[in-house]
Amino acid sequence: MHNFSVTKTTKSRLGDVDFDVIPFGRIFADHMFIIDYEDGEWKNGRIQPYGPIPLSPALSAMHYGQAIFEGMKAYRTHDDRILLFRPLDNHKRLNISAERMCMPQLPEDIFMEALELWLGIDSDWIPSSDGSALYIRPFMIATDDYLGVKPSNKYSFMIYGCPVNAYYTSHLRIRIEDKYVRAAQGGVGYAKAAGNYAAAMYPASLAQKEGYHQLLWTDALEHKYLEELGTSNFFAIINGRLITPEINGTILHGITRDSVLALARELGTTVEERPITVEELLQAAEDGSLTEAFATGTAATLARIEVINYKGKDYTLDVDKHQYALELSEHLNHIKNGRIPDIFGWVHEVEMHTLQV
Ligand SMILES: *Cc1c(COP(=O)(O)O)cnc(C)c1O
Predict the structure, then answer these.
(1) pTM of structure
(2) Alpha-carbon gap, residue 49 to 316, rounded angstroms
(3) What mean pLDDT value characterizes the chain?
(4) Which residue minimizes the CA distance to atom 5 of ligand 1?
(5) Where are the domains of the chain?
(6) Closest protein CA for atom 10 of ligand 1
(7) Which is the closest atom of ligand 1 to the Cα of 255?
(8) What CATH fold (topology level) applies to the domain 5-165+345-356?
(9) Could you identify which of 117, 233, 292, 303 might form a hypothetical disulfide with 254, taking C-beta atoms 3.0 to 4.6 angstroms apart as the criterion?
């Protein structure tokens, strides 16, 4: 066990929050976790009230972009247990991102103990209504104050969270990107690195001006193969087969993606992880063999896609017939909130009694 120190807030903000109407990502749980890395060691792990942190103007993360993050959720079950969904996979992915960005590895025991200690202290922030959760944002930044391009010597890893309601999305209108690039072979597309999202904002804003929610990225070389959306993975059902681009170094290895594939295989669906060309998708949309398309990610689980635009032309899908997506989504959400048994070993129950401080 690590001996993380705990400083509790003297003024909880819980009473000010109306859990029925929570604006996404703006209300923060009372506490956060911080641990610093210096001289090759993680030290001074602590829980403290959520709030601003002092920053040097020379903070290396702000200039050279060593910044990575994760996104996960804690769920309160109807019998009042707290469940995390595949947290060890978030930890692994954090370290994969860290390696690529030349940042230190965070040991699994620090990640898990910090998470559980913090969740125990802020457990009242985990909402209970259907579809709600505490969205958790673990992240790591470089904290050297040194003006010069080199890997930082100092880092901080932190965890904070936001209660969120069932993620309501209108069905997605997406545009296939044929000019800008999110990630190339050899690049950092597979890392949850802050810069990937900054680089995607401008192209996405152009699509948003024309009424599309998100971009469906294509490969950097030819814009011929489909990759993923801005913060979610892409799936299509063509001729009854569930198809998604394979993990090839440019797309993010989504935990929801992985779970959807496992669940679909379990349900006996034919699953294909392989290259999909833009042409194949559009052809299938035209001849009716594309019956469903959806995006997967922790925030929304599954978001159904209604319109796919390519070079000015809209291809519209009948989302009301997207039965398979709906079924998968409900099944997965039921596993996450403990309503149906988890045969995959995905769910991690947080032991609340060990958390008294
Ligand atoms: C986070 C993210 C996803 C989804 O990953 P999950 O683990 O399913 O939440 C997909 N693509 C990108 C680019 C992402 O940042």
Answers:
(1) 0.96
(2) 48
(3) 95
(4) 254
(5) 5-165+345-356, 172-321
(6) 232
(7) 7
(8) D-amino Acid Aminotransferase; Chain A, domain 1 (3.30.470)
(9) 233
Q: Which of 69, 181, 182, 231 to mutate to test the pocket of ligand 1 (most atoms within 8 A of CB)?
A: 231
**Tokens (6 digits) for 64:** 């050279």
Atom of ligand 1 nearest to the CA of 296: 8
DSSP 8-state assignment for residue 193: B
Tell me the two tokens of residue 46: 């602590």
Q: What is the pLDDT of residue 1?
A: 83
SS3 72: strand
Alpha-carbon radius of gyration of the chain:
21
**For tokens 């050279």, what's the residue?**
64
pLDDT in tens, 115-136: 999 999 999 999 999 889 999 9
pLDDT over 80 at 324, yes or no = yes
What's the pLDDT tens digit per position in 77-90? 999 999 999 999 99
Percent of the chain clearing pLDDT 90 (strictly above): 93
Ligand 1 — pocket residues by CB below 6 A?
Answer: 71, 192, 228, 231-233, 252, 254-257, 296-298
**Confidence band of 353 (pLDDT split at 50, 70, 90):** low
- Classify domain 172-321 at the CATH class level: alpha beta
Q: Measuring from atom 13 of ligand 1, which residue has the nearest CA?
A: 231
CA distance 102 to 100: 5
